[in-house]
Specification:
The complex is a heterodimer of chains A (631) and B (312). By secondary structure, chain A is α/β, with parallel strands linked by helices. Chain A has 4 domains: 6-203, Pyruvate-ferredoxin Oxidoreductase, domain 3 (3-Layer(aba) Sandwich), CATH 3.40.920.10; 224-403, Rossmann fold, CATH 3.40.50.970; 417-496, no CATH class; 501-626, 3-Layer(aba) Sandwich (Rossmann fold). Chain A has 21 helices and 22 strands. By secondary structure, chain B is α/β, with parallel strands linked by helices. Chain B has helices at 34-47, 83-93, 105-111, 113-122, 167-174, 187-199, 241-255, 274-280, 289-292, 303-306; strands spanning 55-59, 74-77, 98-104, 127-132, 178-183, 204-209, 225-227, 260-267. In chain B, α1 (34-47) packs across α6 (187-199), α4 packs across α5 (167-174) and α5 (167-174) runs antiparallel to α7 (241-255). The longest helix of chain B is centred in the last third of the chain and has 15 residues, at 241-255. Classes of the chains: A alpha/beta (631), B alpha/beta (312). The interface between A and B is large, with 80 and 66 residues.
Chain lengths: 631, 312
């Protein structure tokens, strides 16, 4: 983080309104002309448990969570469990304060609700405060809230105190509250705000900490949204009007956004019995001529393996999204990881042929979801958007103009009845929907109900009109044609050249490589490394399948060595690069993180300088360095 | 003008229209009950005046899964147990289609049991024909969910310790609004039941007894059969849930005691189909969604105009 940034962490328990308060705070500051970026940390639990959201606020664009943070608003946990002697979970009541101290930077601010939290319960609290030059504001936020309204309004009191200390104009927050809150609760909340704001100014020296929110101005209109919003809007703008799914964290966000919006667009959302059905329904709708999608997280996606392979061999267009979380199995449901990558690339029997995008930002999530639909329907192939809990849930400001695009309901390679009349049929009148020889591998489809279009779609290998066949020549012709589609897609993506990102000085001699949601953090780390005198550039890969071989090998050829950064424990992405390029294992080391928290820029700076360049051990187990082949 | 002109087309159909001219003979064994399903379906489709291009027949895996290889219409031969989810989404996407799903007893009552239960519960307007031969045929004679207790097979060398699943009772309790059982040896009843099932607005389930002469030699050929709606020995009201339930229970017990009972067990014409329920609550458009993509005058909405303001 830089000196002129505010990184505000609001901490409490699940169910205490941390998410909505932080969202309103972020949006208010975005409206005030600032760049914002949030990071959510929460347990798999409805009520209670250590929860926080960080809002990073800067005058300049930000693309990651920061290194540590400088302002803690510590609220109580209304649903904390009562600890018994030796409880594994310890004293939950004090966690909104105790769990957040390690990452608070020197000179930082602590505002805590003295009505709920007692610092006597934290070991060496006063010593740590003194040592780190923290500024502590103990205010009975709960009492202020109770006086004017209800106890939950202590969040508002905390935000008011934040404004007083960090010099944020109260109207910035209050005007957003007026938009976001119904009349009935707005009035008491405004009273709580004013009272808390005045009280802290009266009782404390609010100018003591050297922490001030920056000021700034946007050169175009911004919107605050998440990766999940962007994926859903991308789908809607491509004419997707059918979604089927089964709830699973964190994919549920996309499912909910689609389900809430589709009815008013005349679309259909189906919550079904399991993820096998979810993927199969999307295929059924797509087969019948509606642009459709489904999705899940790792566990549910496992169930989709079977329909995924069926979509490949029957050439049924389908878009799936997969929101990764820490595995294996149930793993850590609310924590990000990228370790479903190999699962998504290869799951289902037989030779996989599908398209997998891994967007890095909300804007990329919008664009790549749209491209996934275009490819799926044009090439009749499954296209998957692979993201994670981090990208799905983090909020950032994005120029509104990113979404100012024309809708595209085009169904892709589908014939009309008029075209079907002239298309080849077999002697039973069945349309030869799977013709052997086509230019780009695509054989146009017909839709049930179209006159002259009937054919058999089957998961068995089949002849041109769909009849089941094990004839070797037909098998090779059909397999080659289906694989040819992947080559055609690769050529199209090369021509577009939009999705993979190279960042930093072109002539840098060292490289950082990553995929998906870690890209922004890796880029910020590269900025620090370059400031530190190294010469580093970044390759962020979004196209995982078909793999951009030329672009990645050119990048690797241009550097002396590279550090591959990914949230897996087995260096899956580095393995993919080696497999696809047939080498470079002696050039790539890995920096891995799988403790449930996304990378912070300093993790990468440290891994790069300490482990890669100096060959020393990393100081703790937050990240893991795996040297290149031969070392 | 519809982009799907086969739907609702007025035609005089002969059942030969549903026989693909090119396809070789079905690969089913001589004497297999599956021929009876194919014949009944062809007869029903012709009687209903359907055209091959407005029908979609989805199947699962097994001998029964070949049904749409030998039936001339749009077909989707899916994967084991998954014919129903694909069928019901196709119907939601384009409600004008006549959608028939089919599969074996292992396919529908075993691996696809969850889909069966939920499709019945939701009362999708599709027809589901289960080829029930009380055995896994294509994989060479293993015990299936409907195999009788004590049934010996290579996978149950000491005889099955499990009581067989009760398909009719399960269907009724899950929510199907038309439940019937017929048998391959009873072609006229089979055709009539399939006609009624297709005409029924809601989920119609036909448990179709199909003898397997190769792997289930011990099993009866499902003769003689008794039509419970016609026999004077069985008095019940098949619009009454409780009377239907009792009749089903008796029928399922009787099968393993050598008495083959068939007929219409439950008919509920009042319950709205899932499509109707979904339209009632405003979650499904009145016009077929599939037509919209061919409608050049349709104004497609976009997120920029519809949803962005709440993010500002």
């Amino acid at each position: 983080m830089t000196d002129h940034e505010l990184i505000w962490r609001i901490a409490g328990g699940s169910g205490d309104g941390i998410a909505s308060t932080s969202q309103n705070f972020a949006k208010a500051l975005m409206r005030a002309g600032l760049h914002v970026f949030t990071h959510r940390h929460y347990p798999s639990r409805i009520r209670g448990g250590h929860t926080y959201t960080e809002v990073r606020v800067s005058a300049d664009p930000v693309k990651s969570r920061g290194d540590g943070y400088n302002f803690l608003l510590s609220l109580g946990d209304s649903f904390a469990r009562n600890p018994s002697e030796g409880a594994y979970y310890g004293n939950e009541e004090i966690k909104p304060l105790s769990e957040n101290l390690d990452e608070l930077v020197e000179g930082g601010v602590i505002v805590y609700d003295s009505g709920l939290l007692d610092t006597d319960e934290i070991e060496d609290f006063d010593e740590r405060v003194e040592e780190n030059d923290w500024h502590v504001f103990d205010i009975d936020l709960r009492s202020i809230a109770r006086e004017h309204g209800r106890e939950v309004m202590r969040n508002t009191a905390g935000v008011a105190v934040t404004c007083a200390i960090a010099d944020i104009e109260p109207d910035v927050i209050k005007s957003l509250m007026a938009d976001a809150m119904p009349e009935k609760i707005l009035e008491p909340n405004l009273e709580v705000f004013d009272d808390a704001y005045e009280q802290v100014k009266e009782e404390f020296d609010v100018d003591a900490p050297d922490i001030t929110a920056p000021t700034g101005e946007h050169d175009e209109e911004q919107v605050l949204l998440s990766g999940s919003d962007a994926i859903a809007y991308g789908a809607i703008d491509e004419g997707c009007r059918f979604i089927s799914g089964y709830p699973m964290t964190p994919w549920t966000e996309v499912f909910v956004i689609m389900s809430q919006n589709l009815p008013e667009l005349g679309g259909i959302s189906e919550q079904v019995e399991d993820e096998i059905a979810a993927a199969a329904l999307a295929m059924g709708a797509s087969h019948a001529g509606v642009k459709a999608m489904s999705g899940s997280s790792g566990g549910g996606f496992s169930l989709m393996s079977e329909p995924l392979g069926l979509a490949e061999i029957t050439e049924t267009p389908i878009v799936l999204v997969e929101a990764m979380r820490a595995g294996p199995s149930t793993g850590m449901p609310t924590k990000p990881e990228q370790s479903d990558m190999e699962h998504v690339l290869y799951t289902s029997q037989g030779d996989s042929h599908r398209v997998v995008f891994a967007p890095a930002t909300a804007a990329e999530a919008y664009d790549q979801t749209r491209k996934a639909f275009k490819i799926a329907y044009e090439y009749q192939i499954p296209a998957i958007v692979l993201y994670d809990q981090k990208l799905g849930g983090e909020l950032s400001n994005v120029p509104a103009s990113v979404f100012d695009e024309e809708p595209n309901p085009d169904l892709g390679s589908v014939l009309t009845e008029a075209e079907l009349a002239d298309a080849p049929h077999d002697d039973s009148g069945k349309y030869q929907r799977y013709q052997h020889d086509t230019e780009d591998g695509v054989s146009p489809r017909s839709l049930p109900g179209q006159k002259g279009g009937r054919y058999l779609a089957t998961g068995n290998e089949h002849m041109p009109a769909g009849h089941i066949s094990e004839d070797p020549d037909n098998r090779v012709a059909q397999m080659n044609r289906r694989m040819q589609k992947v080559e055609s897609i690769r050529a199209e993506l090369d021509e577009d050249g939009e999705f993979n990102t190279v960042y930093g000085p072109e002539d840098a001699d060292l490289g950082l490589i990553t995929f998906g949601s870690q890209q922004g953090t890796v880029e910020e780390a590269a900025d620090v490394l370059n400031e530190n005198g190294h010469s580093v550039k970044v390759l962020g890969v979004s196209e995982l399948m078909p793999f951009p071989k030329d672009q990645v090998s050119a990048f690797l050829d241009s550097v002396d060595e590279a550090l591959v950064v990914e949230m897996t424990a087995s260096a899956q992405f580095r393995g993919l690069v080696q497999k696809e390029l047939g080498g470079y294992g002696d050039k790539m080391s890995s920096l891995l993180k799988y403790n449930g928290n996304p990378f912070e820029p300093h993790d990468i700076v440290e891994g790069f300088e300490t482990a890669l360049l100096e060959g020393e051990e990393l100081p703790d187990n937050r990240t893991k360095f795996v040297p290149k082949v031969g070392e | 003008m519809s982009a799907f002109s086969a739907i609702g087309e007025e035609t005089e159909k002969d059942q030969n229209e549903f026989t693909p001219g090119l396809e070789p003979q079905p690969t089913w064994c001589p004497g297999c009950g599956d021929f009876g399903v194919l014949k009944a379906l062809k007869g029903a489709a012709a009687e209903l005046g359907l055209s091959p291009d407005e029908m979609m027949v989805t199947t699962g895996i097994g001998c029964s899964g070949k049904l749409n290889s030998y039936f001339n219409s749009y077909g989707f031969h899916t994967i084991h147990g998954r014919s129903l989810p694909i069928a019901r989404a196709a119907k939601l996407a384009n409600p004008g289609l006549t959608v028939v799903a089919a599969g074996g007893d292992g396919d529908g009552y075993g691996i696809g049991g969850n889909h069966f239960m939920h499709t019945a519960r939701e009362n999708h307007d599709i027809t589901y024909i289960v080829f029930n031969n009380e055995i896994f045929g294509l994989t060479k004679g293993q015990t299936s969910p409907t195999s009788p207790m004590g049934h010996k097979s290579k996978t149950q060398p000491h005889g099955s310790a499990k009581t067989p699943l009760r398909p009719l009772s399960l269907s009724l309790n899950a929510g199907a609004s038309y439940v019937a059982r017929t048998a391959a040896v009873n072609p006229n009843q089979a055709k009539d039941i399939i006609v009624e099932a297709i005409q029924h607005d809601g989920f119609s389930h036909v448990d179709f007894l199909t003898q397997c002469p190769t792997w289930n030699k011990d099993a009866r050929q499902y003769v003689p059969y008794i039509d419970i709606n016609e026999s004077d020995d069985y008095e019940f009201d098949n619009t009454s849930r409780s009377e239907a339930s009792e009749m089903m229970f008796e029928t399922e017990n009787a099968l393993h005691e050598g008495t083959v009972l068939t007929g219409r067990y439950y008919v509920d014409e009042d319950r709205p189909s899932y499509q109707q329920e979904k339209q009632r609550i405003g979650e499904m458009p009145e016009e077929p969604l599939a037509e919209r993509y061919f409608d050049d005058s349709y104004e497609w909405e976009r997120s920029y105009d519809k949803f962005l303001s709440k993010h500002k």
